[in-house]
Amino acid sequence: MDSPTLLCIDDLPQALELRKATLESHGYCVKIASSGHTAMKMLEETSVAAVLLEYKQEGMDAEAVACHIKQRFPNLPIILLSAYSEMPERILWLVDEYVMRSELPERLVPTIERAHKLALRPNERSQRAA
Fold this sequence. Notes:
By secondary structure, the chain is α/β, with parallel strands linked by helices. The protein has one domain (5-129): 3-Layer(aba) Sandwich (Rossmann fold), CATH 3.40.50. The protein has 6 helices and 5 strands; from the N terminus they run βαβαβαβαβαα. The protein has helices at residues 13-25, 36-45, 62-72, 89-92, 108-119, 122-129, and strands at 5-9, 29-33, 50-54, 78-82, 97-100. α4 (89-92) links the parallel β4 (78-82) and β5 (97-100).
C-alpha cells in the first residue's frame, strides 16, 4: 500500500522542513508549498490525502487558501495549524481540523489519520457538516 501524500503549506522554510521530516518519519509522503499560490498549482497537478495549512502567512492568507481548496476539492481534508489558541469562526468552518502548534507533533498524526479516514467516506463528512 502506498503512503498517503500530504501537502504542507507554510511561508517559513524551517517550519516546512521540520514538519516534512516529522511526517516522513511517520510514513507519509510529504509535498511542501511556501505559498498559497504555489499550493493551488500543486493541487492541480498532484493528488494528496490531506492539506496541512499554516494560519499565519504572507500573501494568500489561510482563509483564501482554504476557501479555494473547498471550492475546487470539497472532499480534501484541511488541517489548520496555528500558534493562536483562538481562531475566527469563518476559518474554522472551512477546515476539517485545527491543531495548535504547541500540540505538535503528538496530536498531528492522529488528526491526519482521522481526517484521511473521513475523506474516504464522503457521506459521513456531509452528515457531520449538516
